[in-house]
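Researcher: Let's walk through a ligand-bound prediction step by step. First, I give you the protein sequence. Second, the SMILES string for zinc ion. Third, you return the three-dimensional complex as structure tokens. Ready?
Model: Ready.
Researcher: Here are steps one and two:
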Amino acid sequence: MKNTNLIGNTQIRRAAAAGDLGTAVIFDGPYGSGKKTAAAYAAAALLCRAPGDKPCGVCSSCLQAKAGSHPDIILFNPEGGNIKIDPIRELRSQSFIAPSQSPFKVFIINRADLMNDNAQNALLKVLEEPTSSVFILLTENASSLLQTVRSRCRIYALEPLSPAAVEDWLRANPSDDLKPTPAAIREAAQNCGGSIGQALRLLEKGLPKYAKLAADFVDSLGASPLRIMEVCLAASALTRSEYGDFYTECTRKLTEAALREPQYARYYVAVYEYIQQQKDKLTDNNGSVFALSSQLAAFCGTINRRT
Ligand SMILES: [Zn+2]
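Model: Step three, the predicted complex:
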């Protein structure tokens, strides 16, 4: 919970800075979408002691939040496993203890969507009790929470960042051990699905081959049928499971391309739908990777992006 630098997510930033986040809130977003960063930021802003912009980043509360050592910011389930009732009972007793130095405490429950029903019902009681504490539930799938819990909470959906915003962030926050080239930063920003966490993982690991090929494939759609064929031929060397990942990545990139270039959206959607059919064949073990990739090249060669 050390990173208190949040970009995008204006709604969360404004609400937290104004002290109007809500006392029970859900930050909902997929894996790697920056929920912990957003929670750390919001907690720091809520407890910041400076009179002006919050979090100021320099008051003693902000410094403790930044260092991950703030006694009134309590993170549950940092590893993100299933949550049974005991940790929620522990949270309840902690919520009765007065804060160490702040006007109130901030409890952050990581992967709150992994609470079992007993744990959720126990939490519901805590949320219904009069307390000055703030509870931030981080979920990858808020809809899996009991309706009774959800209805007590204000729900904030984490926004995916634009590739440009991720690129700017990566440049402005160089890590000590990673020394990525500008090209690697750009590539990671374009392939991270709007998530800084995912971009950092890509930089650590390098981009997997299927992801590079998926990026090449979608780029090739604006080029010649020969280029499409080259990329599909390269993809035919992937293993069956990598080829499945290639398809998944292609559909993600096609969705992005359709949003970016709405004038060609119909074309991208046609390719997307074709790939979905091919994916079914792949799952049903119907056709080799080589056959499927040749069919994909043939399909894309017969329809023109400009039409
Ligand atoms: Zn501060």
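Researcher: And what stands out?
Model: The chain has a mean pLDDT of 89. Strands lie at 24-28, 73-76, 106-109, 134-139, 154-157.
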